[in-house]
Amino acid sequence: MKISWLPTLAGAAVIGTVIRAVFFTPLEARQGAAQKIFYIHVPAAWVAFLAFFLVAIASGVYLWLRDPRLDRFAESSAEVGVVFTTVVLITGPLWAKPIWGTFWAWWDVRLVSTLFLWFIYVSYIVLRGAIESPELRARYSAVLGILGALLIPFIHLSVYLFATMHPMPIVGKPSAPSLPIEMLITLMLSLVSFTLLYFAFVRARYNYAAERDAAAARTDHDA
Amino acid sequence: MADILSAAWLIARKDLSIEFRTRSAFFSAVIFALLGLVIFYYAWDPTAVTATDLAPGVLWVIFTFSGLLGLHRSFGVEAADHALDGLLASPTSREAIFLGKAIANLIFVGAVQAIAIPALALFYNLRLGDVAGPLIAIAILAAIGLVAVGTLFSAMAVNTRLAELLLPMLALPFFVPIVIAAAQATAKLLGGRPVIEVGAWLKLLLAFDIVFVAACTLAYPFTVED
């Protein structure tokens, strides 16, 4: 069996990052082991934003060039983005419970914005599933892919204004802590390995979409 | 530009006269809004939450949901007998069709608000006279943003398998900044805060309107080409 290098490399990098994060990165003085989730949470959030940014770019270029490969890429990137956003939404509250004392905090702008990001791209996937014609599906989802990206700053700003006008709970919220070098290296490794994982997933999902479309085209041809 | 606006107005008048003669969607949206006001009142403990605290959230949640009823009708009426194809075949620009639909929806949503807001004042025992000016400004800005996004998604949703089920799912995330801004600004006004404190929210609504009226007008032609 031929070994596909990208998933192999991405998998090895993620495993290596996790081993380094767990065994070879110092414990954070105040948060202890809970802080380790940072090395999954932050790169997952980075990949989620990268994924949806690339959906918007691919959507915009699709409406211009009408190349079905761009639509397939947007489809793949959105699905992978939703998976990583789900990881962010699970790891965030898991960390918040011991540190903030609560799973969910409506005043945390990033957490709430991420939830809405998840809603937008889940509805993007539902929209794709609700349209039969591939050409119509590509155009509609491109429109939603672009508008969704335009919406994110507005949600972020409105939640920010909402949060700053309400009393903040008094908890030890780390305000932009400067990381020791060992932690910084682990974080950088996690960002790189998760980005590799993103591309591995998108490529696999893209290949599936390409084969599905090719099979559909053959069926249409025979019929 | 004048051509586009006059064509848009013609389309808006067509939609409004259909609506005026049947009044089907308008009555259901108004009754829905009034029922919502009543049901929400009983959904809270009146000894714990005062009507003044409750009112802004109730108003803007009902506004978005009753708006969806009107928005769905917007392109729903064109689906019968492929009426939209006739509209698209006419020598009217796609932008004008979108703007005409949006203007008709704006008048529809505004008319529902014109009944729902006084009804809110009556049922929730609010004195809206002092804050009428800023409240109308909030209502207009919120309605423009809601209608711009909602009209586009209405055009898209009618062509999908899920039709009316899809519209709320597509549109509600986009209504989040509108509802947050409008409800928070209304709460400030009803709480007797100075008008200057709602400035940030009004700016947010205005920015939303500018970005999404432009984006949705430009995006609409991509949803109807064949």
Features:
heterodimer, A: 223 residues, globular, B: 8 helices, 81% helix
Write a short abstract of this structure.
By secondary structure, chain A is mostly helical. Helix content of chain A is 78%, strand content 0%.
Helix content of chain B: over 70%
Compressed to H and E, one letter per element, the order of chain B equals HHHHHHHH
**Spans where pLDDT lies below 50 across 5 or more residues of chain A:** 169-173
Question: How far is it from the N-terminal to the C-terminal residue of chain A, by CA?
Answer: 35 Å
Structural notes for this entry:
The complex is a heterodimer of chains A (223) and B (226). With 223 residues, chain A is mainly alpha-helical. Chain A has one domain. Chain A is built from 6 helices and no strands. Chain B has one domain (2-224). In chain B, 81% of the residues lie in helices and 0% in strands. The mean pLDDT of chain B is 89. Chains A and B meet through α4 and α5 of A and α6, α7 and α8 of B.
Write the layout of secondary structure elements.
The complex is a heterodimer of chains A (223) and B (226).
Chain A: H1 5-23, H2 38-65, H3 68-100, H4 109-129, H5 134-164, H6 181-222
Chain B: H1 2-22, H2 24-42, H3 51-79, H4 83-89, H5 94-123, H6 132-157, H7 166-190, H8 199-224
Helix pairs in contact in B: 1-5, 2-3, 2-5, 3-5, 3-6, 3-7, 5-6, 5-8, 6-7, 6-8, 7-8
